[in-house]
C-alpha cells in the first residue's frame, strides 16, 4: 500500500536516504535508469557487484534493494521488467546509467488509482511548494 509520502501533496524529502544506503553494509553505486526511446528518467537505484553481474547476465535491470538488503530484479514479481539496452559509466566510474526498454506497464512500485504502475517514479512535480501529478 502506498504511503502519504508516495501519493500525498506534501513535500517530505528523505534527506536520510544516503545514510541508509551507507548503513546497509553493501558497497554500492547509484544507477540512473532512463527509457531508451523517450529519455524519461524512470528510477534512481543502487547496484553492487552482484546486481551488476546479474544485469549483465540476464539483460534485465537488477539492483540492490537498500530497504530489504537483497538483490532486486525489477519486474521479477510484478512483470514490469526493464530490459537493458545499454549501460553507460560516468567519468569517475562511481555511477551508472541504464538505458532500458520497459516490458511491462510501468517502472514505479506506486500504483495509479486504476491499479496500474506509474511509468516513472518521477510522476509528481513541485509547484508552489505542493506536489502535483505530472500528466
Notes on the protein architecture:
With 135 residues, the chain is α+β, with helices and mostly antiparallel strands. It has a single domain, classed as Ubiquitin-like (UB roll), CATH 3.10.20.810. The protein contains three helices and eight strands, in the order ααββαββββββ. The longest helix is centred in the middle third of the chain and has 10 residues. The chain is globular, with a radius of gyration of 15 Å.
Give the mean pLDDT.
93
What assembly state would you assign to the polypeptide chains in this entry? single chain
Q: How can the largest sheet be summarized?
A: 4 strands, mixed
As laid out across the biggest beta sheet, the strand order is: 2-1-6-5
Quick structural overview:
With 135 residues, this protein is α+β, with helices and mostly antiparallel strands. The protein contains three helices and eight strands.
Keywords:
alpha+beta, globular, Ubiquitin-like (UB roll), 8 strands, 4-stranded mixed beta sheet, 135 residues, 3 helices, single chain
SSE layout:
Elements: H1 4-7, H2 17-23, E1 29-35, E2 41-47, H3 49-58, E3 62-65, E4 70-73, E5 82-89, E6 96-102, E7 124-127, E8 130-133
Parallel strand pairs: 1-6
Antiparallel strand pairs: 1-2, 3-4, 5-6, 7-8
